Amino acid sequence: MNVLVAGGAGYIGSHAVRQLLAAGHRVVVVDNLFRGHREAVPAEVPFQQIDLADTPALADVLARHAIDCVMHFAALTYVGESVEQPLWYYTNNTGGSISMLRAMAQSGVKRFVLSSTAAVYGEPVEIPITESCPCQPINPYGRSKQMVERILADQAAADPQFAAVALRYFNVAGAAPDGAIGEDHKPETHLIPAILQAALGRRERLTIFGDDYPTPDGTCIRDYIHVDDLCAAHLAAMEALRPGELQAYNLGIGRGYSVREVFRAAEQVTGRAIPVAMGPRRAGDPAVLFADSQKIQRELGWKPRYTDVVPIVETAWKWFQAHPDGY
Ligand SMILES: NC(=O)c1ccc[n+]([C@@H]2O[C@H](COP(=O)([O-])OP(=O)(O)OC[C@H]3O[C@@H](n4cnc5c(N)ncnc54)[C@H](O)[C@@H]3O)[C@@H](O)[C@H]2O)c1
Questions:
Q1: pLDDT beyond 90 at 298
Q2: Nearest residue (CA) to ligand 1, atom 1
Q3: Are 134 and 217 in a shared domain?
Q4: How many angstroms from the chain centroid is the CA of residue 146?
Q5: Is residue 154 part of a domain?
Q6: Closest Cα to atom 26, ligand 1: which residue?
Q7: Residue 35 CA: which ligand 1 atom is closest?
Q8: What percent of the chain has pLDDT over 70?
Q9: Of 149, 173, 185, 292, whose CB count within 10 A is highest?
Q10: For ligand 1, atom 43: residue with the closest CA
Q11: Beta bridge partners of 5
Q12: pLDDT (tens digit per residue) in 245-290
């Protein structure tokens, strides 16, 4: 297929580009490079520096490259930032997705794969979280994505040819095993890269936000999925798109690790003691979040290859050792 990867210069999008190429697809990347890296996109892949807001430019790329499917990773991704600047998040994430869908409608492109998030569930009513759990996001970031899911459902209802899938990621981590591309967010708010930056001396110490949660060691528990497993699910979901439908699938490994367990894994992998400080709980952090990913396993035959956090941290460490300051 000819696939447009929006946000393909970002962390997850750049890993998806590699897998799509390896599977024999033709890939085109659009990204405004606000938080992406041109170096993360292979030189041979056509790249256009375009903002999602620019509907005519998107429509032009879709038509010129005879795109069959859009994989949409482009978004702002920080919960705290979304609370402080909600209009920016709704404009960029929800408005940007509408702009992409309008460009697709103009160009007759009917397949859409959305980066959604476990943040659409908000405070979980049950653990593990299944796709049938109610979506009650508790911050603008989660709501900006939930709205896109709803728009996709409406579009699929209105256009029997339109096929979409929303992939609800839990915590994405790790890097390409060859260490060539990896995570380079500025600022970095994700736990595993932040711990590894501390291990490299790029941060003085790392703060654990709360050790009085009702969990075995008092710290929050999260589900970490390797970025390559996540991208493999995108390829499977793209192949299985069904016209006139929006499907939603959780993507996690179905097992949680506490913050302290992740620290221990990082100390094991790096062989270094990681300086840590204790801080208060952050507002809106549920004690335990992990996925039930049985639906995608059952329906699409996808399975995570990385089922333990240690090898996930190993791949991230390989990237950070080679690129301690990012790209
Ligand atoms: N990293 C995670 O753990 C995680 C978890 C859940 C969901 N997600 C979702 O996955 C997607 C990718 O996340 P990531 O961690 O790779 O983020 P990232 O910031 O590394 O990548 C996003 C890319 O989108 C680009 N972008 C943003 N707004 C744009 C716009 N208006 N026009 C053009 N390009 C734009 C950025 O420049 C960046 O390259 C996001 O949609 C995010 O919400 C990520």
A1: yes
A2: 172
A3: no
A4: 14
A5: yes
A6: 74
A7: 37
A8: 100
A9: 173
A10: 77
A11: 29, 71
A12: 999 999 999 999 999 999 999 999 999 999 999 999 988 889 999 9
Q: Are residues 45 and 181 in the same domain?
A: no
Give dist(CA 34, CA 10) in Å, integer.
9
In a domain, 327, yes or no: no
SS3 per-residue string spanning 270-294: HCCCCCEEEECCCCCCCCECCECCH
Same domain, 188 and 153: no
Asked whether residue 188 falls in the same domain as residue 150, the answer is: no
Catalytic residue among 11, 121, 141, 169: 141
- Looking at the structure, do residues 166 and 79 belong to the same domain, yes or no? yes
Report pLDDT digits (tens) over 103-144. Answer: 999 999 999 999 999 999 999 999 999 999 999 999 999 999
- Is 191 touching ligand 1 by the criterion CB < 6 Å? no
User: Average pLDDT, stretch 62-78?
Assistant: 98
Residues 303 and 201 in one domain: yes
The phi-psi region of residue 324 (left if phi > 0; otherwise alpha if psi is between -120 and 50; otherwise beta) is alpha
Ligand 1 atom 13, closest CA: 12
Give the number of other Cβ atoms within 10 Å of residue 301's Cβ.
9
Calculate how far, in angstroms, residue 193's C-alpha sits from the geometric centre of ligand 1: 16
Confidence check: pLDDT of 233 > 90:
yes
- For residue 90, the domain's CATH number is 3.40.50.720
Q: Is 307 helix (H, G, I), strand (E, B) or coil?
A: coil
12 lines ligand 1 (CB under 6 A): yes
Q: Is the CB of 96 under 6 A from ligand 1?
A: yes
Binding site membership of 36 for ligand 1 (Cβ less than 6 Å): yes
The pTM for the full model equals 0.97
7 pocket-lining for ligand 1 (C-beta < 6 Å): yes
Domain count, the chain: 2
For residue 169, which atom of ligand 1 is closest to its CA?
A: 6
Using a 6 Å cutoff on CB, does residue 9 contact ligand 1? yes
| Segments forming the whole domain that contains residue 186 | 175-223+254-322
Atom of ligand 1 nearest to the CA of 118: 6
Q: State both tokens at 223.
A: 């589900």
Which helix (H) or strand (E) covers residue 238, if one does?
A: helix 227-239
Please check whether residue 244 is in contact with residue 162, taking contact to mean a CB–CB distance below 8 angstroms.
yes
CATH code for the domain in which residue 304 is found:
3.90.25.10
3-state SS, residue 91: helix
